[in-house]
Amino acid sequence: MEHAEEYVYTVGKGVLRRLVHYASPHKNVVAGAMGILVLATVTDVLGPILMKTFIDKYLAVQSFPPTDIILLAVSYLVLQWITATGNYTQMILFQRVSQHVIQTLRVQVFSKVQRLSVSFFDRTPAGSLISRITNDTQAIEDLFTSALAPFLQNGILTIGILISMFALSVQLALICLLLIPVFLFIMAMYRRLSFRVFHLARHRLSELNASLNESLQGMYLIQAMRQEARLIQQFSSVNNAYKQARVRNIKINSMMLRPLVDIIYYATLILVIAFFGFHSLTSVVDVGVIYAFVNYLERFFEPINTIMERLNILQQALVAADRVFRLLDETSLADVGKGGEHPRITRGDVVFENVSFSYDGVHPVLSKISFHVKPGQTVALVGHTGSGKSSIVNLLMRFYPYTSGQIRIDGVPLERYQDGELRSQLGLVLQDSTLFTGTIADNIRFGRNGVDDDKVQWAARFVQADPFIAQLPDSFQHRIKERGAAFSSGQRQLLSFARTIAGDPKVLILDEATASIDTETEEAIQTSLRRMRMGRTTIAIAHRLSTIQDADLILVLQHGEIVERGTHQELLNHGGLYHKMYLLQKGVGERA
Asked: Which residues form the ABC transmembrane type-1 domain (predicted)?
């Protein structure tokens, strides 16, 4: 319970403070909206006063002077018009501020996601991030439009009604005033009971989005393996867990919000009527006073009911804001260049010196890896799955920080290079290429703003992708669907090669880049790769040893260590692990 109280306090204070900070650039608009809100509240409160005057001064005595009645009616209508216009205007202003805040928050969250480390994405489902950027920020918008603004409006209205009540009857107004601590206690109890449920519901919603995202991404495999029923069952289970959390929320709302306030209202109404009844035994009670007080009593409980009903939205929004701010406060950022220097990569000389690495800090993945790739050389990394090949590439690309040792490019430690220089001079081609929504030309020049149309077409010809591009309806301006689903894996990989070559990097990193390409396409691209490697340092990971036989150096990895090194022929003559792998692949190829 202590933890719960501490959490509620943190959310209630810290999160609200940060949200208010986002609204501070629009403080003039907020101040104007609040001013209009106060005006609308005053005119709203004055309405029953005019009705009391009409009942006691004119209706009770059956006197209806035309001028007075018309003036009273016009005044009442003007007050109602000011109230309606003021409420409309302040709502528009608050909505405008909320939209600016949500726009800023979403951009900040998305920008933060772009700067997070690869390790963060390894442990965080994509659907969960999507839920935070969309659903949670939408809940924060509801906080401004459906919670904070009504809280202010109804809070000011409650104060105005209390003042009017005191003008009519001090004793009864004191009774209503004493109800305020009761309502505050109910609100505090509601927050304590509901915060766990709201957090659980938000967590279940993230799981729901993650499950949906995973299913949509793997739809081909799901249908190929006939796993539709299992995935439906899995999704239904997650959806049911979310439903149960929402049901618990509904039960708390049903118990703690309007029903409880209605009971207090009817009890107070009985007390007020009894008070006037006993008072009428000893003195005359004006009908207008009874009407005005009962009207104010109803109006007093109306904003209280509104506030209690909006507690649900407020609590959900605070929990959502807490989740968004936790993401904004995430410290697992991608490595960036250190120091004020701006070294340049001009030759592509790569050195690994006693480099060790572990993803979790416990289980070593690489141990004392050392090798030297001279400018223009090609080094191939081979080994069984899990031997550490891709980890070497991840460290060179600075996706992860190495534990010990040092990596140098052109004699400069890797960490001293600025991101722009490192990413522009290291060209990475992965096994699974990624294409983005846009044109063919946009994807080839992706991340290379200085690449013009001539360079785009040259890069496509260089990797021999221009024949299939020429057959497209709009050639290089052909629009790519999501993830390039309309292209074959080989075509997507050719475009990925063209994108890499267009940047003219000094170092090429090929992570099983030809694994998804058919034999005919591979033969064509190998010719292009040989031309591309001239004058460039190349580090290639390959499972098919036939693709790296001309490498200047082959490193054989096993359990995170380099166990053999040499040229293709030297390793065959050695008769070690590489020789066994070669015979195994050759035997498989012959049997095939």
From this structure: 31-316
Please provide the size of the chain in residues: 592
Across 237-263, average pLDDT: 77
Packing angle of the helix pair 258-280, 170-217 (nearest 10 deg): 170
| Burial tier of 388 (Cβ tally within 10 Å: 0-12, 13-18, 19+) | buried
Helix residue ranges per DSSP H, 366-514: 389-396, 419-425, 440-444, 453-462, 466-470, 489-502
Which run of H or of E encompasses 113? Answer: helix 66-115
Residue 2, pLDDT score: 40
CB 567 within 8 A of CB 542: no
Task: Quote the CA–CA distance of 17 and 7 in Å, as a whole number.
Answer: 15
φ, ψ dihedrals at 555, nearest 5°: -110, 125
Residue pLDDT, tens place only, 378-429:
898 988 888 888 888 888 888 888 888 899 999 888 888 888 788 888 888 8
Per-residue pLDDT band for 514 (boundaries 50, 70, 90) equals low
Distance CA 89, CA 95 (A): 10
pLDDT digits (tens, 9 = 90+) for 94-128: 888 888 888 888 888 888 887 887 777 777 777 77
User: Mean pLDDT throughout 49-73?
Assistant: 76
Determine contact, residues 435/483, Cβ cutoff 8 Å: yes
DSSP category for residue 116: B
Give the SS3 label for residue 380: strand
Interval 539-576: pLDDT, tens: 888 777 777 888 889 999 888 888 988 888 888 888 88
Q: What DSSP line would sit under 519-552, residue for residue? A: HHHHHHHHHHHHHHHTTSEEEEE-SSGGGSTT-S
Q: How much of the chain exceeds pLDDT 70, in percent?
A: 81
Q: Decide: 249 and 242 in contact? Cβ < 8 Å.
A: no
Selection from 122, 576, 583 nearest residue 359 by Cα: 122
Q: What helix, strand, coil percent values describe the chain, rounded to 5?
A: 70, 10, 20
Number of helices and strands in the chain (H, E): 22, 12
Do the Cβ atoms of 148 and 105 come closer than 8 Å? Answer: no
Taken in order of first residue, the domains within the chain and their CATH numbers are 17-328 (1.20.1560.10), 350-591 (3.40.50.300)
| DSSP alpha helix (H) spans, 218-339 | 219-224, 228-256, 258-280, 287-328
Give, in order, the Cα–Cα distances in Å from 128 to each of 124, 247, 327: 7, 22, 11
